UniProtKB/TrEMBL annotation, chains A, B:
Family: Belongs to the HrcA family.
Domain Heat-inducible transcription repressor HrcA C-terminal, residue spans: 103-321
Protein name: Heat-inducible transcription repressor HrcA
GO biological process: negative regulation of DNA-templated transcription
SUPFAM superfamilies: GAF domain-like, Winged helix' DNA-binding domain
Taxonomic lineage: Bacteria, Bacillati, Actinomycetota, Actinomycetes, Kitasatosporales
NCBIfam families with a match to the protein in the record: hrcA
GO MF term set: DNA binding
Length: 338, 338
DNA sequence: GGCTGGCACTCGTATGCGGTGAGTGCCAGG
DNA sequence: CCTGGCACTCACCGCATACGAGTGCCAGCC
């Protein structure tokens, strides 16, 4: 077990390194933080911290930098989430209040997060699986062609074109629309399959094929589109990484382009609260030198999607976590209102 | 006027420089292209080309690289758009055919373009202004709350929530829906304002306010959403720029984040065919060392939106132009089918 | 007049070499 | 257990040198 002072030394190292981006030495530490001991003592502490794997030296005669393990300890034990200032909170609220629809909410959230944290922001669209159906609309586009429009309680809209096996009259369509909505409106997506199972039985034989087609398309849409969309922004902030980094930035950009990777990344974070994944804790190789701070957000009590930021492991964890948490909270409010 | 051989020298310089990313000297030129003359002669030609501003030397004792003006001449006079190979065409078709809806079409197009050109791809969503209305749907969400859903001929869907001044019955809603659609379905967006102008007159006095509100929201949607969306991809390709300049990449990333900038960029290209903007021809400062190749695409004869790629001025113009043109053509086909 | 070979010149890059200093580990003493 | 002192390491900086690709120019040739 590390003594209290050694933990303080670790905290100081993390803070200084995050600030200066340069390895921090024992002398500088004692000067900038009043630890009440001499550099020599700090050196001993540092040697101990290095033995335990919390810090490392890039070169023999350089200062120390925190390792992933060091950041982990810092985040778990030493850091307190830094709440935003009042003006910041107001700015967030004002900015998000201006959104006109779901796309806009997500887009604004991304910009906001990227600006607040000066890092790459990732915002997942509210998931379909956990949403409820607000309305299903069927539109006749041609005699044997129907457009299915699905509207969720979070304001998301999905549409799908359907080729019917047989022509389908306007009255039948209206009938189907009415019956469908009376069954599924307000229900959770996961319940829909059960609810519509016996629907074709109420129709004429000639229409039954089409009804079946429409239903299966609806179910497909519910399931397939579970594959969730997301939006990212602030990639320009990657250039702040370090002066060395054309090599570091590339795999990160590549990873960010793969929505699948990002979705998995957000999905892995099971913690109901905020999750911080540091460096090699991220499964994806390209993100081994980055940390991901993510948190769920949602209109009600339950989280419907996640958002977060991706930045260098050497990031301002307290500030970032504060910003992420605050933004998630406000986005939840906005969604609840609409 | 430049002699034929000098033009050939310029062409050779562009080709070599694009290939090697290094300034090209007179000796190397004569070795790799059989110009039929000696290095000394080429040197004279190069001096002339430099006087005219087509090429420049980064340092006194280095080879030459093309200037923006040089690339311009190359693109206008010396390059032929390189058609794609048959397998490439098949791959495009197959990949795009798999798309399930408009979002998917755009997403796949971006990926495709980025992969084919190994550069940053930008695809604009089919514009609202030039589209026609396929259907307007009105859904009652609450007694005095209506959702407006607008579907375009390109499959794009826009929705908008409306708070009505007074409760609005289902029958009135159905009535409005029917009258609205009979007037605007199949018409161009630009014509809609005229077409609905006198619509409120046919309604009861108590409903007229609501009808008016719905109509003005519709018109707003038509106008405001003219502000068009777009999707970008392949930003990781920016890292191929050169090993030298992480400084160049930053402003480009920043510019790419600003949708407004990109939209203006695509919008400026008035040429009905393909447009190439080279280096400083781009108004935006951050893109002064990049070239933009863009072209319109559309389902019918008319272009409904644009797509293109952004890359270093030192790009493979014939190949890029070929890829952009081919992709635009196929996307147009896909849109026409759906 | 235009092309060619030769030649001197420029200048950016690579290489080698001390000097400097931040930072360390260790040790003896308080 | 902390502290001051001390020798040691090694990345970084500046500088001086060598190298060589590439140029411009000129005299000669077709």
């Amino acid at each position: 077990m590390l003594s209290e002072r050694r933990l303080q030394v670790l905290r100081a190292i993390v803070q200084d390194y995050v600030g200066t981006e340069e390895p921090v030495g024992s002398k500088a530490l004692t000067e900038r933080h009043n630890l009440g001991v001499s550099p020599a003592t700090v050196r001993n502490d540092m040697a101990a911290l290095e033995d335990e794997g919390y810090i490392a030296q890039p070169h023999t005669s350089a200062g120390r930098i925190p390792t992933d393990k060091g950041y982990r300890l810092f985040v778990d034990k030493l850091a307190e989430v830094k709440p935003l200032t009042a003006p910041e909170r107001r700015a967030i609220q004002n900015f998000l209040d201006g959104a006109v629809d779901l796309d806009d909410v997500v887009a604004r959230t991304v910009r906001l997060l990227a600006q607040l944290t000066r890092q790459v922001a990732v915002v997942q669209y509210p998931s379909l699986t956990r949403s409820t159906v607000r309305h299903v609309e069927l539109l006749s586009m041609a005699p044997a062609r129907v457009m299915l429009v699905l509207i969720t309680d979070t304001g998301r809209v999905e549409q799908r074109m359907i080729d019917c096996p047989a022509p389908f009259g306007e009255t039948s369509l209206a009938d189907l629309r009415a019956r469908l909505n009376s069954r599924v409106a307000g229900r959770r997506f996961t319940d829909v399959p059960q609810l519509v199972q016996d629907l074709p039985e109420g129709f004429e034989a000639e229409d039954r094929g089409t009804v079946q087609t429409v239903l299966s398309t609806l179910l497909e849409t519910l399931v397939e589109r579970t594959e969730e969309r997301l939006m990212i922004g602030g990639t320009a902030n990657l250039t702040r990484f370090g002066h060395d980094f054309p090599l570091t930035i590339r795999p990160v950009l590549e990873a960010l382009e793969e929505q699948v990777v990002l979705l998995k990344l957000l999905g892995e974070a099971k913690d109901p609260g905020m999750t911080v994944r540091i460096g090699h804790e991220n499964a994806h190789e390209g993100l081994n030198s980055t940390s991901v701070v993510s948190v769920g957000y949602g209109s009600g009590g339950e989280a419907v999607a996640k958002l977060g930021v991706v930045g260098p492991t050497r990031m301002d964890y307290p500030g970032t976590m504060g910003a992420v948490r605050a933004v998630a909270r406000y986005v939840g409010q906005i969604l609840a209102e609409s």
